[in-house]
Amino acid sequence: MRAAVVKDFGPPDSVATMDLPEPVAGPGEVLIDVEAAGVNFPDVLVVGGRYQFLPERPFVPGKEIAGTVRSVGEGVVRQSPGDRVVAQLEHGGYAEVVAVPEDRVVTVPDGVSLVAAAACGLNALTAYFALSRRANLRTGETVLVTGAGGGVGSVGIQLAKAWGATVVAVARDERRARVAGDHGADHVLTAGPSLRDDVLAVTGGRGADVVLETVGGDVFTQALRATAWEGRLVVIGFASGQLPTVKAGHLLVKNISVLGLQVSDYRDREPAAMCAAVEHLLRLQLDGSLTVPIERTYPLGDAARALADVEAGGLTGNVVLTCPADRPDPPLSPTDHTDVHEEHTP
C-alpha cells in the first residue's frame, strides 16, 4: 500500500510517499480502506517534532480518516465488511489501508460523503467539546468566537447557533468576516485594540457568556476582558503564536472560568464520548444544520503539499487527502517487505 511517511522530523516537504506492508485487523480492530483523510495543524506539528505526543520514527501521520471496512478482527461486533466509517486515531491516517480499534470507529450515515465525514474530525470535535463539555453552553447565552474564519471557528459558530446561542464572531480580515457571516454569526467584529468595547457594545454591556479562543496574544486579553459575569473562556489554541498570560484579578472580579481543551484526550480516555460526539456531528451534517467547509482536496501522494498549505495558514476551510475508491485488490499472498521503497512524487 502507499502511505505518507516521516523518517525524520522536519518541514512538510520532508514527508515522502512510500510503499509499506498492509496491516491486518487484529483482535478488536477494524481494517479500513481509506478514501479520505483530514489534514490538520496538529499534523504539521507532529511532522515537525513540535507536538506534545510524538510517535517513534518512521511513522505515518494523520489523525482522522473515512473509508470502507475491508475486514474485522476477532471480537468486533459493531462493524462489518462494506460499512462506510469514520475513525479518529493518534497517527497513521495518511495511508491507503489502516487498522483501527473498534471503539474509535463510527458508521457514516447514507447521505454524508466520506470526504465530508473525514473533514468532520479534529476541528469540529474541538468546537463540539469546547461548547458542550467544557463551557456547558446553555440556550440563550452569547458565544464569542475568535479566529472565526478558520476551521474550528466556522463549526463553533454553527453549533452555537444550532444550540440556541447568539454568536459574536471575531475575524482578522474582510474575507474571514464574510465566511463567519455566511455560517450564521449574528455579529461580526474585527480583531483589534477596541475588541473588548466592541463586544460590550453588541451585547448591551453584558459581554460574552462563553468564549471560544483560538488566537492567543492580545486577542485573548481583549476577549477575557469582554467575558460576562460567570462567563467561561475555553483556551483552544494560539494561532497568533503568542501564548497569553491571565491576570487573575479579572477572574476574581467577575467569577470567570478559564478552561483548557485538548480534544484528543477524549478519544483516548473516553472513546465512547468521542464516538457519540462524532455521531452527533454526522447527524447535524445529514439534516443540514452543519456544513463543514472543505477548501482543498489533494491525492494522497500530495500529502507534503497539503501539509504545507495548512502550515502557511490563510485557509477558511478544511484540507482533505483522497485515495481512489477503485484501488486494485491486494495480492492474495502478502509480500514480505524488509524495508520501505520511496515513490517519486512531483
Quick recap of the structure?
The protein is an alpha/beta fold.
C-alpha-based Rg, rounded: 21 Å
Secondary-structure-based class equals alpha/beta
The coarse overall form would be: globular
Straight-line distance between termini: 19 Å
Question: What fraction, in percent, of the residue positions are helical?
Answer: 25-40%
CATH superfamily of the largest domain: Medium-chain alcohol dehydrogenases, catalytic domain
What portion of residues belong to β-strands?
25-35%
Per the CATH scheme, the topology name of the largest domain is Quinone Oxidoreductase, Chain A, domain 1
Please give the domain count.
Answer: 2
Task: Give the topology, please.
Elements: E1 2-5, E2 16-19, E3 29-39, H1 41-47, E4 64-72, E5 84-88, E6 97-101, E7 105-107, H2 114-119, H3 122-134, E8 142-145, H4 151-162, E9 166-171, H5 174-182, E10 187-190, H6 195-202, E11 208-213, H7 217-225, E12 227-235, H8 248-254, E13 257-260, H9 264-269, H10 271-286, E14 294-299, H11 303-312, E15 318-322, E16 341-342
Helix pairs in contact: 3-4, 3-10
